[in-house]
Amino acid sequence: MKCELAQEYAALSVYGELSDDQAHQLQQHLGGCEECSRELEALQALQKAMSLLTVAEPSPNLLARTRIRLEEALDAMPHGSWLLRVWQRFQQALARLSAVPVMASALLLFGTAVGIYAGYCAGVHVHDSEEARLILSAPPQSSDTPGLIASVSGIVQQPDSEQVEVHYNRLVPETIHGSLDDPQIRRLLLVGTQNRVNPDVRGDSVSLLADECRAGHQCSGGPIRNALMLALRTDRNAVVRLKALNGLQPYIADDMQVRDAILESLLNDSDPRIRTQAITLIEPVEGDSSVRQVLHAVSLEDDNPQIRIVSRQVLDQIPQIQ
């Protein structure tokens, strides 16, 4: 056996990767080669020193956030997409890690993590674009208002009534009267949630749709849910985000995407009122492992001490993690 091959075998032997036959060949070579014996001793010393180092564990916050974002990215991608194939390869790679040396395992995990992160970014972009498309592309429900709607310019609700007056623009400003249950009124409100010029219109639209959902007035359709989720994630106004959060309450128990959006707000939203309200809304579904992970992360790491206390109180009421 040549020294080059012996040194390769020595590196593999440190991690127990040699067959019995290869180990026997290496021992025979080491018996007559002092240089390769010193090489093996150096590798063994390095491996022992590395084993004494503390292995850094990922924080619960990172694990929970990664799971939420990965699930959202997978849900947003079409069936059979390249992201799904990356995820399947990642699972297969994990199954093979026990048979790979430490350095190769680290390189594999690094490369896979880069691929997953790139896929997540692409998935989030597709997911948000698809939500906006669903909101704005729903076909008109009535022939009373033909043509494209340019914008919604104002909303007035009659006191103590389901009647609402919506001012909107096409080629010329127009107005329509009707109930909040009217499909055309709802379509205009959905358009109003996308108004980036007039924040009052956007806030009023989100508020009215959220109130309708909380009152149980036939809000099971996808466009309203998507509009509220989009407002919760992207609106710069904390009051609008809070209204959208409250409007999503009826969906929490049965809709995983809504639940993940609320957990994301609990982790990332800058307003403590929204994070506190998110804890209140997800408490009935604390049996979900994602909910428990996020609550645990928030109870340890949130900047607001009151939110940490509330999260801890909710966790203490869950027998599975006491």
Query: Percent helix among the residues?
Result: 55-70%
Structural class: mainly alpha
Count of domains: 4
DSSP E strands, number: 3
Mean pLDDT: 75
Number of helices: 14
Low-confidence stretches: 135-146
The rounded distance between the terminal residues' Cα atoms is: 59 Å
Tell me the overall shape.
Answer: elongated
Largest sheet: 3 strands, antiparallel
- Radius of gyration in whole Å, from Cα? 29 Å
Beta-strand level of the residues, as a percent range?
A: 5-15%
**From N to C, what is the helix and strand string?**
HHHHHHEEEHHHHHHHH
Strand order of the largest sheet: 1-2-3
Pfam family, one: zf-HC2
Keywords: Membrane, Transmembrane, Transmembrane helix
Organism: Paracidobacterium acidisoli
Transmembrane segments: 93-120
Provide a descriptive summary of the structure in words.
The structure is a single chain. A hairpin with a 3-residue loop joins strand 2 (163-169) and strand 3. Helix 4 packs across helix 6 (102-136), helix 11 (256-268) packs antiparallel against helix 12 and helix 11 packs parallel to helix 13. Strands 1-2-3 form a 3-stranded antiparallel β-sheet. It is mainly α and 322 residues long. The longest helix is centred in the middle third of the chain and has 35 residues, at 102-136. It contains 14 helices and 3 strands. It has 4 domains: 3-51, no CATH class; 61-135, no CATH class; 140-251, no CATH class; 266-322.
SSE arrangement:
Layout: H1 3-14, H2 20-30, H3 34-51, H4 60-76, H5 82-96, H6 102-136, E1 151-157, E2 163-169, E3 173-179, H7 183-192, H8 199-214, H9 222-234, H10 238-247, H11 256-268, H12 272-282, H13 289-301, H14 305-316
Antiparallel strand pairs: 1-2, 2-3
Helix pairs in contact: 1-2, 1-3, 4-6, 4-11, 4-13, 5-6, 6-9, 7-8, 8-10, 9-10, 9-11, 10-12, 11-12, 11-13, 12-14, 13-14
